[in-house]
Amino acid sequence: MDRQVRLRPVEESDLALLARFEWDPDAAGEFQWFGFRMDKARTLERRWRDDGLIGDETSYLAVVLDDGTCAGLVDWRRVGSFGNYEIGIVLFPEHRGHGIGTEAQRQLVSYLFSTTTAHRLQAGTVSTTSPSRSRWNASASNARGSAGKSIFLPDDGVSG
Predict the structure, then answer these.
(1) Fewer Cβ atoms within 10 Å of its own Cβ: the N or the C terminal residue of the chain?
(2) How far apart are CA 87 and CA 126, in angstroms?
(3) HSE-up of residue 21 (Cα within 13 Å, Cβ side)
(4) Could you tell me which CATH class the domain 5-142 is placed in?
């Protein structure tokens, strides 16, 4: 990767760009496209006005390149008992496959272990997308186990 990556709170100027994940099937990607969801884009904007998208249950940070370009989002949410979080990432298509996601998730893991009560992180990934699995393995210090057939995919039934 030849570009610097950093995480920062989502800024108001990012909101219109991030809405692209809700109205552009190519931006969301084949496993994250759930139809046109402009209501979700409006909810994201309301949440940003309320708490800057950093809250008790679910939080988001912008993935930003050295030239200031917003390449996507990372997120985390509490799961189950105390100290367990699930993390995720979504990058715009033009920023995928360049190591940006690996570095962003590495930074998110470090951030969560140093600023929250996290003692366990988990990430959902689709086994057919080897870049997602590689990115998670590269950013996590100790990957343990996987849950098979845990999500529905329209093209092949269930996968995990």
Answers:
(1) N
(2) 14
(3) 19
(4) alpha beta
Q: Does 134 have pLDDT greater than 60?
A: no
The span from the CA of 101 to the CA of 72, in Å, is 9
Report yes or no: 129 and 142 within 8 Å, Cβ to Cβ. no
Please state, in angstroms and rounded to a whole number, the distance separating the CA atoms of residues 52 and 94.
26
Contact 23, 41 (CB under 8 A): yes
Measured CA distances, 57 to 2, 86, 87, 155 (Å): 34, 11, 12, 31
Strand partners, 88: 75
Structure tokens at 71: 């390449």
Strands (E) across 9-153 are located at 58-65, 70-78, 84-91, 120-123, 151-153
Report the share of the chain in percent with pLDDT over 90: 51
Task: Name the residue among 85, 23, 27, 89 with its Cα closest to residue 56.
Answer: 85
Q: Where are the domains of the chain?
A: 5-142
Query: How do residues 89-130 score in pLDDT, each as one tens digit?
Result: 999 999 999 999 999 999 999 999 999 989 999 987 765 555
